[in-house]
Design brief:
Layout lengths: L6 E3 L2 E3 L14 H10 L3 E10 L9 E13 L3 E4 L1 H4 L2 E7 L5 E3 L1 E6 L4 E5 L22 E6 L7 E12 L9 E4 L11 E3 L5 E9 L11 E5 H12 L7 E2 L2 E5 L2 H6 L8 E6 L4 H4 L7 E5 L7 H9 L6 E8 L2 E8 L1 E2 L7 E2 H5 L10 E5 L2 H7 L8 E6 L4 H4 L7 E5 L2 E2 L3 H13 L4 E8 L2 E8 L6
Antiparallel strand pairs: 1-2, 1-14, 3-4, 3-6, 4-5, 5-9, 6-7, 8-9, 8-23, 10-11, 10-13, 11-12, 12-15, 13-14, 14-15, 16-22, 17-18, 18-19, 19-20, 20-21, 24-25, 25-26, 26-27, 26-28, 28-29
Length: about 450
């Protein structure tokens, strides 16, 4: 990994090479009106997630995370990022008026980072309209709205710093770069123009420090591309993405000169899938793609975005440079062959079948720890030695030095005894575990979740 650059998707780090300038602007007179109009349709999303274990024998870990989203249909349809809801065992949607509703995953797209969540309500909700991201220009003013760091609704002003950014997330990258603040928790929120329309879905931030925050470079998925994905997630009968089975890369000046293409822009074929339409049509590595149905584009990502939007079954004409001349090759577009484009809600529901870790670590009580934590000699139980940050236990206010005396109605004194009771309850289908905690302030019951959490 290039240690100088890091791109952060709520904890995932990717590394692009960036160029170009960014700018900052103060809030304009029109920003107030846009913010007042758009904010009611933006939601905070609070989630319990299960994170994979860091070691082979460890259990998964339950953690609390936050994100953002925006309503596109008054009936309760919400757009967010896929990485916001990945691994979620429960989703709580908090409306701008403070109402809290249970969120259900409608679908998620693993490759374009988009997901759709639905809430049920007895009245119409405020909704945002999709805008025209194709009309954006570098320097255009935009606002980003969301829930940074779980603090609550926040509005930031900035401009479009660059377009068509490749951040190495997908083969189709076409990100909008902005200096309008995008921090952890903003993911899934809208980027809106001065008409109050959504022109992008806030997704990532750049920082040399992988654990750092916003430093003036953020990225949003263009509305044009996000809307296509959302339509497919909402309607299973919506036309599937097209596929030719080629791996493309940008045609550099040096490759262009080497192949005798001159100064033409395009994409060179690096690989051809043996089972794909491109192979059947006779395309091969070293062919240079110059146009699709007469449309000439500037880079490989633009060609791939065009291919996925061609109706399945349609014959398309590819203009390619081969053996010193341009020629036309016909290929029949096939359906995308795997699930990387769209993951259905049913697939999302299959996640996280293991009983997650509460984030607690235990040890038997001994004289030294009784003295350290001022635990009465009459108290019998298992000592809590550590509490994972952002865990369910931390959210419940459990701290090191607390003592677990009962689990369900069973006295416990060792970590193994706690584990045995929890495993039996989980195997019996219990959703929660009743735990009696004792400390210097007294005793209290808490409930640790064993299965799917409900908001």
């Amino acid at each position: 990994m290039n240690s100088l650059l890091a791109l952060i998707f709520a904890g995932l780090a990717l590394v692009p090479v960036l160029s170009g300038k960014t700018f900052a602007r103060g809030a304009g007179a029109g920003d107030f009106t846009v913010a007042q109009t758009a904010t009611p349709a933006v939601v905070n999303i609070a989630l319990w997630k299960v994170r994979p274990p860091t070691k082979v024998d460890d259990p998964p870990r339950r953690v609390r995370t936050y994100g953002s989203g925006f309503i596109i249909d008054p009936g309760g349809i919400i757009v967010t990022n896929r990485h916001v809801i990945d691994g979620a065992t429960s989703i709580q949607v908090i409306l701008s008026n403070g109402d809290q509703l249970k969120g259900e995953i409608v679908g998620a797209a693993p490759m374009p980072d988009i997901a759709v969540v639905k809430v049920h309500t007895d009245h119409p909700l405020p909704a945002l309209r999709w805008g025209d991201s194709k009309a954006l220009r570098v320097g255009d003013p935009v606002l980003t709205i969301g829930n940074p760091l779980g603090l609550g609704m926040s509005v930031s002003a900035g401009i479009v710093s660059a377009l068509n950014r490749d951040i190495k997330d997908t083969p189709y990258d076409n990100y909008i770069q902005t200096d309008s603040a995008i921090n952890h928790g903003n993911s899934g929120g809208p980027m809106v123009d001065l008409n109050g329309e959504v022109v992008g879905v806030d997704t990532a931030l750049y920082n040399p420090d992988e654990a750092g925050g916003f430093i003036g470079i953020g990225f949003a998925i263009p509305a044009e591309f996000a809307k296509v994905v959302v339509d497919r997630l909402l309607d299973p009968s919506h036309p599937k993405p097209g596929w030719l089975g080629v791996t493309l890369q940008d045609l550099t000046r040096e490759l262009s000169l080497a192949l005798g293409v001159g100064g033409a822009k395009g994409a060179i074929i690096a690989a051809v899938d043996d089972s794909g339409p491109a192979h059947a049509a006779g395309l091969r590595p070293s062919d240079v793609l110059l146009a699709i149905d007469g449309l000439r584009l500037n880079d490989s990502r633009a060609y791939l975005r065009t291919i996925v939007q061609i109706p399945v079954g349609r014959q398309t004409t590819l203009s390619v440079w081969r053996a010193g001349k341009e020629q036309a090759i016909a290929a029949n577009v096939a359906e995308w062959p795997n699930s990387m484009w769209v993951m259905s809600a049913s697939m999302a529901e299959k996640m996280n079948k293991m009983m997650p870790d509460s984030g607690l670590r235990f040890a038997p009580l001994i004289d030294d720890t009784r003295m350290q934590y001022r635990i009465d000699g009459k108290v019998k139980g298992a000592l809590i030695t550590s509490v994972e940050k952002e865990s369910e236990a931390a959210d419940l206010g459990i701290v090191p030095g607390d003592v677990v005396t009962l689990v369900q109605d069973i006295p416990v004194a060792t970590p193994d005894e706690i584990r045995d009771v929890a495993t039996k309850a989980y195997g019996g289908g219990s959703q929660f575990l009743a735990v009696l905690i004792q400390n210097t302030k007294g005793a209290r019951w808490v409930s640790l979740s064993l299965g799917k959490l409900e908001p």
